Amino acid sequence: MNVFVGVGRLTKDPELRETRSGTEVCNFTLALQRPFKNSDGDYITDFPMCTAWKHNARFISKYFKKGDPISIVGSIQTRNYDGDDGKRVYITEINVDRAEFVGSKSNNSSRNSDNYFDEPEYPSGGDNDLPFDF
Question: Could you give the domains of the chain?
Answer without folding.
Answer: 4-129 (2.40.50.140)
